[in-house]
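debug: dumping io for the single-chain case to check the tokenizer round-trip. Nothing else runs in this session.
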Amino acid sequence: MMTSVDADLIRVLADPLRLQIVTLLARETLCTTHLVEETGAKQTNLSNHLKVLREAGLVDTEPCGRYVYYKLRPDVIAQLAGQFADLAASARTAAENKRACP
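debug: decoded output
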């Protein structure tokens, strides 16, 4: 069964811009300037979304001079993917079980 922490991660990733940011960070570590160029979002809006992703534990920051780079935490994504895989495996087994109506 999925926990409330997992539900929170799903809600965080349900936002289209945050999902786009995560997808971009899955390819490479980027700074805010790169993310503004790639997404077309305003810097303040992007910073707010990055804060949500950091607080959810999905991204880490890496200071580099006057810039801050963001990188995805693959372990968190892998854990969430594993829980979905477990859910799918359970659903395959459940398809063979049918509770009788009273």
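debug: round-trip ok. The mean pLDDT is 90.
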